[in-house]
Each structure stands twice: as C-alpha cells, then as structure tokens.
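Continued from yesterday's entry.
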Amino acid sequence: MPSPTAQSSSRRSPLRAAVLFAAAAASTGCLALGAAVPASAEPAAAASTPGSAVGTTVNAAVSAENPPTQAELDRAREQAAASAAKLAQAQADLAAAQSALDALAAQANAALEAYQQAVEAKDAAVTEEAAQRERLAQAEATLAEGKKDLGQWASQAYRGGGSLSEYSGLVSVLKGGATDDTASAIASAKRIGDGRSNAVEAYEEAQRVQADATVKAAAAAEEARKQADLATAAKQQADALVAQQRSQVQNLAVLQAAAAGNAASTADHAANLAAAKAQADAAAAAYAASAAAGSITAVAGDCDTGISLVGFANGLIPRSALCPLTSAPGHVLRSDAANAFTALNQAYAAQFGKNISVTDSYRTLAEQIDVKARKPGLAAKPGTSRHGLGIAVDLGDGIQNADSAQHQWMDRNAALYGWINPAWAQNRSGQFEPWHWEFTG
C-alpha cells in the first residue's frame, strides 16, 4: 500500500506538471504572444506577479515539502521549449504568408488595372470607329450629291454646243476616279460658271475624306477587336489572381489565429463586428433622416437605380442615377461600384471595428473644375476624372497613409471586391495618392 506521502505526490503530479510547465514557459518568454521574460528573472518572482493565478499556484506547489524531481523539471522544460518552437513557427509562417499575400495582391491589382485600361481603350476605339463611319457616310452623301450636280452641268454644256472632251476633268470625276489634274476640272467648270468650280473642289475633298474615313474606321475596328481580346485575357488573369488572393487571405486568417490564439481572435472579430454594426446602424438612421428630408433615398448593398449611364458625360451623371453609400452619408457612386464598396466596407469594419472613412466620391464637372483650381497638381483635367464616372473614392481613417495597418489591409483585400489603388497613385517619387481608390468592375 502506498505511503500517504506517495499518495499526495501522485495526486499532485498533474498539477505540479502544469505548474512546472508554466514556470518553464515563463522562463523561456513564450507564455503570451510577443511577451518575453528576461532570462535573468527568477521563476518564483515571475510567478508571484499580482493577479496571476498561475503565479499563486507555482508558489503554493513548489515548496520545500514537495520539491519537483529532476525528471519533472526536464519534462516541463521540454514542453515549454516545444511550445515556444510551435509559436515561433506559427509566427514565421504568418510572416511568410503575409509577404506572399502582398506580392500576390500587387499582381492582382496590376491585372485588374490592365483589364480596366483595356476596356476603356476598347470603348474609345468603338467610339472612334462610329465617328469615322459617320464621317464616311457624310462624305459619301456629299459625293452622291456632287456627282449628280456635275453630271447635270456637263450635260447642259454639251447640249449648248460644247464638246464633251472640253470637260475632260468633269468626265474623269464622273467616272468615279480622282482626276490627275484638278485644275483641268475646275477650268471646265469655269466655262459653265465660276461658282460651279467650287463644287468640283468640294467633290474632290469629299473623295479624300471618304478614303481617309474608310482607312481610319477599319483601323479603329481592328483596335477595338485587339483591345477586346486584351480585356478578355486581362479579366481571366485578374479573376485567377483574385481567386488565389482570396484563398491566401483565408489561409492568413488561420495563421493569425494560430499565432494569436483562436479565442482572442474570435473575440476581437465579434467585438469589431458589433462596433461596426452600431456605427452602420447610426449612419443608416442619419441617412434615412436625410432621405426623409428630401435627399437621396437610402438603400442597402444591392442598389440598382434602373437608370442606364450610357450617354452621360463625365461629371454630368444625375445623382438620381447613382447609388448612395449608406456607411458614408452624402457620398454616391455608380451602382456596381457602390455595391462592391458596401461589401468591402463590411469586411473592413469586421477587422477595424468602424466603417471606411470616405472623403470624396462622385464629383460633378463643376466640382472637378473647382478642385482643379484649388489643387492643380493633384486633380485631373475637368471632364476626365474617374470621380466623374462614379467609380473612384478618396479615403481617410489611416488609409491615406501608405504605411498604416489600414492601408496594408486594403492592399491585401480590396481587390477581392474589385477596388484598387492604381499604379500611378503609388508613385512615391511622383504623383502619390495612397488615399485614391478605383473600382475596376
């Protein structure tokens, strides 16, 4: 039968092991994430910190009456070392994942921007083709009318007793070919009447316009096809990169939880969501009040005004055709940009406990002119700003600082919602606008 002392030792063994592990962990500096204990600190002193349940237990358990064995100390130190190694590996994995995500996010941003530029170039080429075809149609109408008039004049001259050969320039024109000697055609027209020589010149000019418009229309059509292909390829690349980015963001969250502790991470996330919801509810209430007073109707994150923006010039889009940002009262964007921003804001709020601060969004032409006058080095030429298309925002709350945690989070996550800080705005040695973000959808 075991002695009372042996029974007491057996009953205390799990407690002693836990206490020894805690003491050893404290001596290795890994009891809490990022908290190191100096190597010179005495375990007993560290364990007796006020308010520390572990410290109290250590003092009570490690006593002269029941000292730990060397094997228990060795085992506790091995467990502490393993825990420290596990934490260090988790932190190293987290750092590597953050670095990989930063690189991938930069690639995704570049692909989205390339897609945006290709789409805009395609649209410009389509517009150019339409303009050249309109120019061609006008030239052909001018040619048809001029050919009819010149034919009548030549016929009248011939019936009047002249020789048709005298009007060789007109004959060449009427046969559909350009004359080699425009002066000859004009001289022929002068025999009919000086005023009619202008018609020959107009006809020749219409022929030149016809030829030029035909070439330019064909070139614009080819450019439109080329840019459409580039846009398709860029979109496919952007979609693939964003999918990878989304996966890495999820993996990063797992690693962050492993490094910081799941319980703390979950608690922080819940607290942030609660704070963000309270802020969003307050913003929604204020926005509803302004809507009741006659301003834009407040909507959720699925806004669709039902109004096409085709035909509206930059900065001349009516506010009724745009969607308000419920998290940022007074600000409006194009419907798809507004809906994507709402989703982005929800993710941001879950991380930081508050909504994204928006300092500027859609900018009318008059506002663009005003900003250009006040900030000539920063503002785009009036009528060309992406703010005037309802797809750009300027942000605050730390996002305007490229080195802040908020901006870093945006760099890693905004592309998942179609938003980017364009390459030109990242040029620290030139036009540097870390606060400027654009929707690429």
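--- second protein ---
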Amino acid sequence: MSRRIIDSNKKKLESEEGYVIKHGCGLRIALCYPNTHEIGMANLGLHTMYDLFNSIPDVSCERVFLPDKSEMPEYEKSRTPLLSLETQTPVRNFDVVAFSISFETDYLNMARMLQLSGIPVWSKDRNHFHPLIVMGGAASFLNPEPIADFTDIIAVGEGEILAFQLVDAIVENETKDEILLALAGIGRGFYVPSLYDVIYNDDGTVFDYIPNEKTVPRRVGRALASVNPKEGTLRRAIKRGETELADFLVNQEIFCPSTSIWSPEAEMGERLLVEISRGCSQGCRFCWAGYNYYPPRVVPAKDILAKAREWRHKTNKIGLVSTAVCDHPEISTILRELRSMDYRISVSSLRLDQISDELLDALVESKDQQIAVAPETGSDRLRRVINKNLTNDEIVDICGAVFDRGMLTVKLYMMVGLPTETQEDLEEMFVLVERIKNRMLEAGKKFGRAGKIIPSLNGFVPKPNTPLQWDAICGEKELKRRIKYVCKGLSRIPNVEVRFMSARIAHEQALFSSGDRSVAKVIEAAARYSGDLDKALRETGTDPLFHTSRTRSYDEFLPWSIVDSGLSFEFLKTEHKKAQKALSSLPCPAVEKCTTCGVCPSTWLADAPQSLIQIQPAKIREALAAAAV
C-alpha cells in the first residue's frame, strides 16, 4: 500500500472532529460517496447515514470517497486498493459497501470506485466472499436501472426508515441469498435487481419486469418518513407493538438531519448545515425533488434550534437546507432564535414568491451579499408550462426588495430547452435580466456601489416521476445553439456575468436519468476509460438518442416503473397535458388523506398517533434490542 495515500487520509482525518471509530464490531459498513471528500462532506445524506449506522450496537461505519485528480495517479502507480478514511482499511474487506448517490452523473464514479477497490463491478461476477453492494440516496428515488446490474440491493426510500431494516436482515440471515430474499419480500423500500428478469419489446423498449422468485412483489414501493424526517423506525416499533416504549422515547434525544462531522476542508465545511424541511408543495413540473419527496414534511423548530445551540461553540455560521425555506410554518421562530444566538444565516436558494422581510433582515445581518433565486425562464407563458406561477413583473419587484436591503448581487437559475420553448421565449430572457439589472443599479445608487446579476443556465433534462418524464431532451446541437445564443445576448448586458452548463453534460444526465439496464455496460466501459463516454458508446454499440431524444407515449412501460413512487399515472398524465396547454395547477395541500396525486395513501403512515411522530431512531433500535434480550 502507498504510504502517501495512507498519510493523505490521516491528514484529512486530523482536520475533522466528530468521526467515529468502533473496533470489534460484528458488522462493518463502508459508506461510499461517489465523489471527492471535499464534495461528499457537504452532503447531509452522508452525515445522516454515518450517524445512524454508527448508532447501532455492534455495527461500525467508515467513510470512503473517490480519490481526487491529484491522488488518482498514486493509486494507479502503487496499485493501492481504495481505502476507508477512518482506519485505512481496504474497501473490499468490509461486509457491506453502501453507496449514497445523489446525482445520476455519479454513476460513473460508483463503477470507478468498485474498480479501484478490486470488487467486480457486475453483481453476477461476485460471490459470498465479496461484500454486499448497496445503493441508496436521492438517485434511488428516480431511476436506479442504469446501475441495477452493479448492485445487490437498492434502498428505495429515505435512509432514516431503511437503515435498521437493512442491518436487521443482514444480521438475522446467514447467506447472501437469504438476505436478498428477506429484503425483497418486505415489498417496500428494498429493490433486489437480480430477482427480476427484464423483458424487452422488439423495438428495444421495456415490456415488463418479471419476478423470478415467488415471494418477490411485482413492484417495489418506496419508503418515506411518515410525517417528518425523524420518523426512523416508527413502522418497526408499531409492528412490534412497542407503542409504550416509543411514547417513552419521544423527545428524549434529538434527531435532526444535520452536520455530524466537523470537516472544515469540505465545501461549506465551516458551516453547520441543518435540514429544516423535505420536499416542496409547489409542484413545478420539471422538479424531481418536489415530486419525489412528496408529501412535504418539516422538522420541528425546537429540534432545529436545539441542534443550533449544540453547535454554537463550534461555529457562528448556519445553512438552512430546504427546497422551500419560507414554507416552514415556524420559519419566523427559527430565524428569530438563530439571530438571537448571533448566527450568520445562509440559505441555498429562495422561492421568489415566499421571500419575507424577516428572512431578508436575517440575511443582511449575516452580511450575505448574494442570494440565489430561480425564475427558470424569462417567459410568463413557459412558467405556466412548468407550473412556476410567477410573472416577470412580480420577479422584478421581488428582486427589487432584495436590492433595497443592500444585497446587490443575485444569482438567477434559468433553463434552456424546456418543452414548447420558442425563439421568442429565449429573447424574453434578455428582457427580464435587463429589467432586473436596471432595478439593481437604481437601488445601488443609495449604497454607492453596483452589484452583479449572475444568470446560471442549464439545459432542461426530463426527470423520472415528474409530469415531463415523457418529453425528449432538446437535441444536443440545437441545445448548444440555444445556450450559445442566450449566453451571447446576456453577455452584452452590463453588470451581467453568465454561467452555463454545456449541452453535452445535459445529454449525459439525460442518458443516466432515462436509461434502462442496457446503459450499465456504457457506464462500466466509461469508468474503465477514465470517463470517456464517447468511447464507451462506440464499444458497446449503444445509441444514446434512443434513451434521451424521443418522446415517449403514455402506453410505454418506463424503465423506472419497477419502483412505485406512489404518484398515480393519471395524476402525472393530467399534469403533462396541462403543461402542453400552459395551464397552472394548485400546490400540494399536504393534508392527511388527500388523494390528489396518490402519494399519501400509498406511502404515508396516516394512522400513526401523534405521540409517535418525533422519535430518535437510534434510541428505539437500542431499546428494542435490549428488550428482546
């Protein structure tokens, strides 16, 4: 093994606080984030799963990251296998290798990490001597099929629910086959690809998935926390009839998804990150996070504030993580109390129609000189297509309120290539940015300075389980032309700094978002060729346009249909037809027993008593284990 690699890992560890090293445990889990340490340690999902796994008795969890570009040559030269961060143990020596994947583009990195570990990439090439390969994270909600043939188990749902069921199945069964059957038989939360045969039509589309074991369900339901992300093992506690025990544990300890390891070298590493809510009620038709995290749920203010008090001695910076910060019903209390603790508050992105004076005051106090908002397009008509119910006049007025507080730099998230987009729609983007810039300069006069408008352009990529899943991505050449046209037009406006994602990257995302199992061979080859996707496509004879650039009919069985998201077909179809007519829809009401989209009756544990909602999952697990002795 390379001493340089080991020393590099130890140096990263020395800069951190809060990591856990447990010796002599019966089950060892390598928690892999398929990107670099700097990026991975900014991911709350990784922090949450690390905390949960290490809270379980006789289970140890260590982190593993993709080597950065400066480290990769040393791995290849020394032939050092991929190592864990905490104890520098080869990944192949763990019992379970669990990948937390947030973005489809990291599928390539997953395959590369398996290759670096000396673990066969294809599940069919592994035996009982190899670790179990588990995949979870946000990507599991979307379309796990492109990497289904790499994985033994895909966790379809939120980790707070599934971590303990996974560990139970591994501990309670002796062989790999028994573990896989036990998890698949649950029917919700665990997808075992090897237990399904994929049947294709003559035209290459998927006909159906056929279980090859009698106890395996036809479709796999996803598992969500019933009321808020703290539910954890609620289903398990209720199933065992331990309601008194669960009642006793209410509020005994705080479980709030947040930073668990202090890692100042990571992106946003000097900031406490706290998830205050999950999901969004607005129903923007392109947004996978909104639809795939239905119903929207919140973490109670008291838990958020308790976590903030716990970390205040470490930092005075806090980031509130949410797709809709101002939708939190207790946001005023949260902001007021955080300000009283002298926290400098930041948010990832703001919904334009929910920006409050109180939040702006908090951001100004925090000396935050830039905020990010998402008008998505310059066209009022296109905004109705995607169900973003704001007009250009409203956007300019809201940005004006931001500028009047002295925050003169605004980042604008915008998309190119949306369904039904016309040349006129693109030109309206110039008009909107010009108006926002003029409003910024007007406000800047009283502050004696000017700011910047930063449009960030991305190509539209259709996402599974959204109303636009049937649409094709704009062709690569045409998308490139549109992005170039918009960039050129915006660059002519003073005080505007344009950033953009290439059309090529958008098409790569579309391939991994919409592909079926046949795309796995492309990913494996590209990983071997250091990410050269063109070479991989040529070698495998794969036509990417089949997966990305054709409009799908409502009758087609979509590759991701193996996972039952809970969203009804008729609901998504209706929303798609309304998009084609540029008709708006009302937000999700997020009320119990609503049947509009189908999610709540299918995934929400609506009969759970309120006293069981706020529970520390690790304490339940420990108490149940102790009670069983």
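Residues 227-239, 248-254, 603-625 have pLDDT under 50 and may be disordered. The radius of gyration is 24 Å. Will compare against the first tomorrow.
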